[in-house]
Design goal:
Radius of gyration: 19 Å
Bound molecules: N-(5'-phosphopyridoxyl)-D-alanine
Structural class: alpha+beta
CATH superfamily of the largest domain: D-amino Acid Aminotransferase, subunit A, domain 2
Largest sheet: 9 strands, mixed
Low-confidence stretches: none
Helix content: 25-40%
CATH architecture of the largest domain: Alpha-Beta Barrel
Number of domains: 2
Length: 278
């Protein structure tokens, strides 16, 4: 695999980052994951806009121009013959002597790599996910897409230990989101409910696109926090992310939703999203 590191396209085994990089020492960095379908970037402008916001919230410089960022993505797709999968992009504050205060004048590190994956024909899309509820132990600025991913990683492992595929994280009696996706339920009267945007969740790029598609399809959407009880009582459920598009959920906290198969609204939104991405 060819990866990008600070201006160079190199085989992954030749890629190097300093042990003093603040991404490594402090998780002082941000990232984006953009999906690739038929060799083309999906929702790319949205991901770049969010990256710009994450960087500015952490007072970090933008390492390369928007045009250059797009050119790097395209070159990685070409060099790796990527037809379907994801591109991971990470910007960290760069290398500096270890100090909690932000160092002055460090050069940010920029790393990108590809991951080939079946997104459209993902096996989980046919069966649906089983979700466990786990306490949300993350920090308070989940709207910034930082590389500080140990808490969601622990939440996902807790869900796996319960025999589930992923966790929906719960805070103050309400679901925030999935460990790496936004969470949705469909009520018995056919309305989609998903948490409103705030610092409590990541502002998903796929979420924005899917809510737009739902509005166009005249499906009612309520953007508000929902409880574990509402989720257990839902007709169907699903999650969204660049890495999974719209992924149906068939079980929450041991309760089977609907007939235990991916629900019609999740399936329809998934088809609409894939059709639009192509
Ligand atoms: N995760 N919420 C969280 C906590 C996420 O980590 C993600 C994405 C999302 C969905 O955002 P988007 O639709 O923009 O991908 C919501 C990426 C895919 C990851 O960490 O791999």
């Amino acid at each position: 695999r060819i990866v990008y590191v600070n201006g160079e396209f190199v085989p992954e085994e030749d890629a190097k980052i300093s042990v003093f990089d603040r991404g490594f020492l402090f998780a002082d960095g941000v990232y984006e994951v953009t999906s690739v379908l038929d060799g083309k970037l999906v929702d790319f402008p949205g991901h770049m806009t969010r990256l710009g916001r994450s960087l500015s919230e952490l007072q970090m410089d933008t390492p390369v121009s928007q045009e250059e960022m797009e050119a790097i993505h395209r070159r990685l797709i070409a060099d790796n013959d990527l037809v379907e999968g994801m591109i991971y992009l990470q910007v960290t504050r760069g290398a500096a002597d270890r100090d909690f205060a932000f160092p002055k004048d460090t050069k940010p590190s920029l790393v990108l790599f590809t991951q080939a994956r079946d997104l459209v024909n993902a096996p989980a899309a046919a069966t649906g996910l089983k979700i466990a509820f786990v306490d949300d132990i993350r920090w308070g600025r989940r709207d910034i897409k930082t590389v500080q991913l140990l808490a969601p990683s622990l939440c996902k492992m807790a869900a796996k230990a319960l025999g589930c595929d992923d966790a929906w994280m719960v805070e103050d009696g309400h679901i925030t989101e999935g460990t790496s996706n936004n969470a949705y339920i469909v009520t018995k009267d056919g309305a989609i409910v998903t948490r409103n945007l705030s610092n409590s969740i990541l502002h998903g790029i796929t979420r924005a696109a899917v809510l737009q598609l739902a509005a166009e399809a005249q499906i009612r959407v309520e953007e508000r926090a929902f409880t574990p009880d509402e989720a257990r009582d839902a007709q169907e459920a699903f999650v969204t992310a660049a890495s999974s598009f719209v992924m149906p959920v068939v079980e929450v906290d041991g309760v089977t939703l609907g007939n235990g198969k991916p629900g019609p609204i999740a399936k329809r939104l998934r088809e609409l999203y894939v059709a639009q991405a192509r």
